[in-house]
Design goal:
single chain; alpha+beta; 3-stranded antiparallel β-sheet; 18% helix
């Protein structure tokens, strides 16, 4: 069992490589968006080549969040026929 105190940062910092920085601006939420929901007009879509099931769930989850938080706009996600990993996201209203 270790004799280190719980407050000892050396016990949880991997290789002491974490830096504390000053003056770094917090990115605006819109700068972090992965998918272009905001740019879609009604009846437009974008396609996403998903790397795996987790990636596809991420796209679907994002659409669900946008449906809840973007008043008046609705999005649907569908897997594209004849592909194994492509989904489309359509704005329907």
């Amino acid at each position: 069992m270790s004799n280190k105190n719980k407050g000892d940062t050396e016990s949880w910092v991997p290789n002491n490589k974490i830096e504390i920085l000053d003056g770094v601006p917090i990115p605006h939420r819109s700068e972090r968006r992965t998918y272009p929901f905001r740019e879609l007009d009604v009846n437009q879509c974008f396609m996403v080549e998903c790397e795996d099931g987790k990636h596809e769930r991420s796209v679907r989850s994002s659409a669900t969040r946008w449906n809840k938080n973007d008043e008046g706009r609705r999005y649907v996600v569908r897997r594209i026929d004849d592909t194994t990993s492509t989904v489309g996201v359509w704005r329907t209203s």
